[in-house]
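Cbb3-type cytochrome c oxidase subunit structure dump, as promised
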Amino acid sequence: MSQKPEAPHHKDIDALSGVETTGHEWDGIKELNNPLPRWWLWTFYGCIVWAVGYTVLFPAWPLVSSATSGLLGYSSRADLQQTLAEADAARQGVIGRIAGSSLEEIMADPELARFATAAGNSAYKVNCSQCHGTGATGAAGYPNLNDDAWIWGGTVNDIYQTIAHGVRSPTDPDTRYAYMPNFGTDGMLDKAAIKSVAAHVASLSGLEGGAATPEGAQIYADNCAGCHGDEGLGMAELGAPDLTDPIWLYEGSLAAIEAQIHQPRHGMMQAWSEKLDEVTLKQLAVYVHGLGGGQ
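structure tokens r here:
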């Protein structure tokens, strides 16, 4: 019985290199049928072996409600929890020292001061930046914490008192409280007198429109000097701001001064001791004091 002869196999040989091609061609470019390099093949095989070993030793394959745990029993979650526990244990020693130290002792200890400043920075961003700004530069009605003008005093203990008990807090009996009379709405001064004393106050800091007149000076002496001082330098113990510097809580203009005398705006800051622990309050005080304007 005769066999059917096989069709002859014609290899396509690249004329330039003399290498057999795969038969694929794109835009006149032929694909050569070169074998893969040995080093590449062994690397590929090694990766396969390594991957199989990894999936056996470590968590890898997802199941219905969990995953394979691996022969080594490793858990990245457990490793993270251990690392956090170690970090927390290291922190507790410093936190304990801060809790048992006065603010002056914290600032005198380089390690405690450094830790308190860093922790206070974090606490500031979470609790204070919404009003005073991320850079603590403040805004209209919210004091700048970087300058050296402090309504209630800028020592670290003054700052702690303000943070802990707030200003005009309705729930803290130890809150800071200052009140400026409604000279206009309560009829204590007429419009002409308000304009005269406002011009006098504006002249103390060199504001445009300011004018130091005997009449304005007398009205100031009779109604304002008791809190702001004869020279307008303010009194921190009363929460009365300095009127001679160019720093204004709301707006530095003659019209704004007239409006404040006519019917003053009174800001409010909550008592943070109701929300934050003692250590965090100390850390915040140290941080704010170190911003550059602390006394």
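The chain has a mean pLDDT of 91.
lmk if u need the other ones
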